[in-house]
Design brief:
Organism: Cryobacterium lyxosi
Number of strands: 9
Pfam families: MTS
Strand content: 25-35%
Structural class: alpha/beta
Protein name: Methyltransferase domain-containing protein
Number of domains: 1
Strand order of the largest sheet: 5-4-3-6-7-9-8
Oligomer: single chain
CATH architecture: 3-Layer(aba) Sandwich
Order of helices and strands: EEHEHEHEEHEHEE
Keywords: Methyltransferase, Transferase
GO molecular function: S-adenosylmethionine-dependent methyltransferase activity
Number of helices: 5
Shape: globular
């Protein structure tokens, strides 16, 4: 069995793409996924919960999809806000290639699928959406949160979805304790064993 994970930077498995039909923004969309990326057969339940319960994104600005996988969150944001710039960030090069393929298939030109190091350091975000990669481990997850959440613009929000039995409540407590005082973390929705957290920057 391959030791590749969806968070492997360069999967060593032979690429096997597949076409799937998913609902995004109320329409069926034919998209491409592949092996060695997260949830290649469908939009995973956590992401579905996030897309259902997060509010409409702003119309413009820089948005971040942190841990984008093959792109359902980034594609949703790009369709919703065509005048925004969506940064789709992942460590998995195969996933980033799929985001680019899917953006092109939908005629979207406002998605930039890149490694974290390729996001300019002077970019701040009008919103951040993430189904974060919990299975990378607590230390790496906390580092991700500490790296990216402070890059929210003032008066902006991040929306995170985390499975309850994978530590959503403990992550909420950690965010409340570790983020600066001008950040506020609240639980905004509970569905299908997942929690949707809002992180608001004053």
């Amino acid at each position: 069995m391959s030791s590749d994970h969806y968070f492997s930077p360069a999967p060593g498995t032979v690429l096997k793409t597949r076409q799937i039909t998913v609902q995004l923004r109320g329409q069926d969309r034919l998209l491409t996924t592949a092996n060695s990326v997260f949830s290649p057969a469908h939009i995973d339940t956590g992401t579905e919960v996030l897309l259902k319960y997060a509010p409409e994104p702003p119309l413009t600005g820089h948005f971040l999809d942190l841990g984008c996988g093959w792109g359902p969150i980034a594609l949703h944001l790009a369709l919703a806000s065509p005048d925004a710039t969506i940064w789709a960030v992942d460590v998995n090069e195969r996933a980033l290639d799929l985001v680019r393929t899917n953006a092109a298939a939908l005629g979207l030109t406002n998605i930039r699928a890149v490694l974290a190091a390729d996001v300019p350091t002077d970019v701040s975000f009008r919103t951040i959406w993430s189904n974060p990669p919990i299975r990378v481990g607590k230390d790496e997850l906390h580092e991700l949160m500490q790296t990216w959440l402070p890059r929210l613009e003032p008066k902006a929000d991040a929306w995170l979805v985390i499975q309850r039995n994978l530590g959503s409540d403990s992550l909420q407590r950690w965010l409340a304790a570790e983020l600066p005082s001008h950040f506020d973390t609240t639980r905004e929705a509970i569905s299908k064993g997942f929690r949707v957290l809002q992180v608001h920057r004053d």
